[in-house]
Q: What sequence folds into this?
């Protein structure tokens, strides 16, 4: 059918036939001659020039170039060819035309492409430059991000068998080739065992090297082959700017590695440690989605360098609300260095317990009220007075710290911020309000007691 339709179409579109008048309008038209070789050549296609049948047909038509006819439509021409005087020549011509039609149809089917695919265009995937940079950043830094499982020991009430159950999970990242992994302290808190899963899904038991509850940072160690460990590039957080693009990689809700993007929406924020309540200064605020499971994962800049550890979100529902916080890498760098070298952080302390800020505000004073100052601590040795009750049960307020080294102290956060800038062994001048009098007391700072 395709071949006959093609032949019919070619005949109707022939310029020779279309230019001639209709037979019904000129019944007495004299006989004219039409070159058959020219009409056949209208059906030739580039793909059929090498056909032996067409070569034979062309040779045959060269000997007999003129054929009379009375009509100009293809059916009449076919009848004329069949009523020629030479029966053998007429049959041969018909056979040649049939073979030509079949050859043309076959050549079209062989040379042509699939009709369906001819209209489907699938250009190669093209990405914008910023998309390519994001894809490359994720692919290069994913091997450095690990998945941490927190296991707790439980005892069966009936059989008394002890077994481990997962009680939490989080993210972390490879710090060096020695197998150190950095994460948040609250990710590993209360764990009897820890397991670290690398990017290639290989799992290793992890040991706690050390942790800093006040800054919510912990360091683990895994005995993994060095070729499986990919340390993350360490950046700088001191020169960050609001509006700078950032990327967070982690395992939210226990899913595989996930990338979220955003910008730095605030700097020098302050949050409280989930373990001790001690404030963490200079925290990075970002709108990159941080959900449960992202804790301990890295926050990267556009170059793929670490600028912070994702640690908390501000959300009543527990899901990302567009306000996430990361501990700056400059703070993390010093903490990790001490944990790797000594297994603990030697942070200076005054050795006191102080009242909540709301209680001091109710008294109508500004400062830090000393509730307890152990005698073996730095403040107790220096002579700071704690809050106590007299023989009649009346409350006697202790010293109220108003400044340290001339820097005003309005609340507990101010005191912590000043102490974070000091070192163990430094002598500081503590100004206190004792009754109605102000006194200045020198205190030698001591390291924080060991934590278990």
A:
């Amino acid at each position: 059918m395709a071949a006959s339709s093609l032949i019919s179409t070619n005949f109707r579109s022939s310029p020779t036939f279309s230019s001639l008048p209709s037979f019904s309008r000129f019944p007495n038209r004299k006989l004219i001659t039409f070159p058959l070789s020219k009409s056949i050549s209208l059906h030739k296609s580039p793909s059929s020039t090498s056909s032996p049948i067409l070569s034979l047909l062309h040779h045959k038509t060269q000997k007999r170039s003129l054929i009379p006819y009375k009509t100009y439509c293809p059916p009449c021409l076919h009848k004329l060819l069949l009523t020629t005087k030479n029966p053998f020549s007429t049959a041969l011509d018909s056979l040649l035309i049939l073979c030509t039609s079949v050859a043309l149809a076959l050549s079209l089917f062989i040379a042509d492409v699939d009709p369906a695919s001819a209209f489907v265009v699938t250009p190669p995937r093209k990405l914008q430059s910023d998309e390519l940079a994001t894809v490359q950043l994720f692919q290069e830094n994913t091997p450095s991000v690990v998945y941490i499982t927190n296991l707790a020991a439980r005892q069966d009430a009936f059989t008394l068998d002890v077994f481990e159950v997962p009680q939490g999970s989080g993210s972390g990242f490879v710090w060096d080739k020695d197998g150190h992994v950095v994460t948040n302290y609250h990710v590993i808190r209360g764990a009897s065992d820890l397991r670290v899963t690398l990017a290639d899904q290989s799992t290793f038991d992890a040991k706690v090297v050390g942790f800093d509850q006040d800054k919510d940072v912990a360091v683990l160690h895994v005995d993994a082959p060095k070729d499986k460990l990919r340390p993350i590039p360490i950046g700088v957080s001191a020169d960050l700017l609001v509006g700078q693009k950032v990327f967070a990689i982690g395992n939210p809700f226990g899913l595989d590695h996930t990338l979220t993007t955003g910008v730095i929406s605030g700097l020098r924020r302050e949050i409280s440690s989930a373990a001790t309540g001690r404030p963490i200064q200079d925290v990075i605020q970002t709108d990159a989605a941080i959900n449960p499971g992202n804790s301990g994962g890295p926050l990267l800049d556009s170059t793929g360098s670490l600028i912070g550890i994702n640690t908390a979100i501000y959300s009543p529902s527990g899901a990302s609300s567009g306000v996430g916080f990361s501990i700056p890498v400059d703070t993390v760098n010093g903490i990790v260095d001490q944990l790797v070298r000594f297994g603990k952080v030697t942070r200076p302390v005054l050795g006191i317990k102080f009242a909540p800020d709301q209680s001091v505000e109710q008294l109508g004073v500004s400062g830090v009220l000393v509730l307890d100052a152990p005698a073996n601590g730095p403040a107790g040795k220096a002579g700071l007075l704690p809050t106590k009750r007299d023989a009649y049960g009346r409350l006697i307020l202790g010293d109220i710290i108003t400044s340290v080294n001339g820097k005003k102290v309005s609340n507990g956060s101010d005191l912590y911020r000043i102490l974070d800038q000091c070192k163990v062994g430094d002598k500081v001048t503590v100004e206190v309000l004792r009754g109605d009098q102000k006194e200045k007391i020198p205190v030698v700072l001591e390291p924080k007691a060991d934590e278990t």
Notes: Residues 64 and 368 are 122 Å apart (CA to CA). Residues 139-342 form a domain with the Thrombin, subunit H fold (CATH 2.40.10.120). The two ends are 90 Å apart (CA to CA). The chain is about 25% helix and 30% strand.
